[in-house]
Amino acid sequence: MRAAVVSDYGEPVRIVSLEIDDPGPNEVLVEMRASGVCHSDWHAVSGRLPLPVPMVLGHEGAGVVRKVGSRVRQIQPGDCVVLSWIPSCGSCWWCTDGHPELCERANDAAVNGTLASGDKRVRWDGTPISVFSATGTLADFAVVSERSVVTIPSDMPFEEASLLGCAVQTGVGAALRSPIRPGDTILVVGAGGVGLNIVQGARIRGAAKIIAVDLSATNRELALSLGATLTINPAKDDPLLAILDYTHDRGVDVAFEAVGQVELVALAFNAARRGGTAVAIGVPAPNENLSINAFAFPSQEKTLTGSWYGGSFAPRDIPRLVELWKSGHLRLAPLIKRRYRLDDTPKAFEDLISGRGGRSVIAW
Known about the structure:
- The chain has helices at about 40-45, 95, 105-110, 160, 165-175, 195-205, 215-225, 240-245, 260-270, 295-300, 315-325, 345-355; strands at about 1-5, 15, 20, 25-35, 55, 60-70, 80-85, 120-125, 125-130, 140-145, 150, 185-190, 210-215, 230, 250-255, 270-280, 305, 335-340, 360-364.
- By secondary structure, the chain is an alpha/beta fold.
- The two termini are about 15 Å apart.
């Protein structure tokens, strides 16, 4: 097969020929049909996420199952599926405590560049190599755990379905599991792939006012079309002053940070009203620290919390998101602004880091 690979930190993304093994007993082979291009992949390329390289990139995808392992019973060849990059095991302490998104085995697999089983099924000149987040969707095929696939309707466009694997679950999930109440005022800092879906989740949840902050004019326009009531260009206006002016100096009820920059987490926290909540969703570098005013915790009763994968459990939440899409409450097609072939993946990453806005999708 052919795949998008980073051979070492800071090296260019390359399209190379690889060998892929048949699936193990609890695994499936998926022929990829679409894969989103996400900043998290770029963090692996740049070394901001120090994952084992060489590595097949991609973690947000959809495709068709072609082979299944000997112990797989619920998935059949020919099934259309979305891939989840957290194959929750269901038996570790975190899973049994009700937090499958924090699954210990899935975390170990992501850190080590393996599948949930601990194995590697992709080889480069005979040598096993890593895959990003137990998936590696920027390739013609992916062998993944059966826990990494969720079936979808056969008539759902693969390009739209692929976004359910990461950006939509993360963004909509974070909004749906936050303390948003109908009529609340919400702030979304960063209206990229995840942030735009926080906007959608907040709208679905019943927020009356949704403020989106982003440097990209494309993302600000998309945010307005998906439910935002005000957008702020931080290159032109001071976001905190604009937010306080919009909320009559009270602040927002719930603020989300979806970029992964510590100063923007601080902005979200400072923009939250007394008794409000700030939710950190973006992924900063592992060694970065956050500095905020400690007095605000007791004196203003503010809450600062995190959200990983939107607190989602793919087998439960992807079918729900599909139903929201069917009903028209969740819009996926407008999120996709650029389409590429696999050969053009390096160009897709260039456009991603240039901040062109919207989601890019590799389509087969």
